[in-house]
Amino acid sequence: MEVSKKDWKLYREKLPEWQEAYMEKLIKKYVKYLQSDKPASTKFWEMEKRIKRDKRNPGVLIEVSKQDMPFDLIRLIHEGVITVNDLDEFSQELKEMVSFLMERS
After folding, report:
1. pLDDT classification of 61: cutoffs 50, 70, 90
2. Which 8-state DSSP code applies to residue 3?
3. pTM assigned to the model
4. Which of 14, 56, 63, 90 could form a disulfide with 94 if both were Cys (CB 3.0 to 4.6 A apart)?
């Protein structure tokens, strides 16, 4: 099934919002960790690892294509960037496709 123009447009509108919200969650986790009593060097190197790992998450950076959109939505769900409820505004066809593919993964 091909992704509709309406779903593609909505995806391109929603993705930056989802990413912004996800990065806000990451920053709150970083702040909490940085306020811990651990030594500065430990916090510094741990933060470097976390940021390096987190910037590969689709909630931070993702290459978008209409063809990969359903798979990207599944990845965003699996990575905790969005929930299935975030797809409410999308077409029933797309939601069914995502649900079907999630069952297979």
Report:
1. very high
2. P
3. 0.87
4. 90
Alpha carbon dihedral 19, 67, 1, 104, in 10-degree steps, equals: -60
- CA atoms within 13 A of residue 70's CA, in its CB half-sphere: 19
| Residue 82: both structure tokens together | 């969005």
**Domains held by the chain: number:** 1
Beta carbons within 8 Å of 103's beta carbon, 6+ residues apart? none
The rounded distance, in Å, linking the Cα atoms of 101 and 73 is 10
Give me the count of residues in the chain.
Answer: 105
Query: 3-state secondary structure string, the chain?
Result: CCCCHHHHHHHHHHHHHHHHHHHHHHHHHHHHHHCCCCCHHHHHHHHHHHHHHHCCCCCCCCCCCCCCHHHHHHHHHHCCCCCHHHHCCCCHHHHHHHHHHHHHC
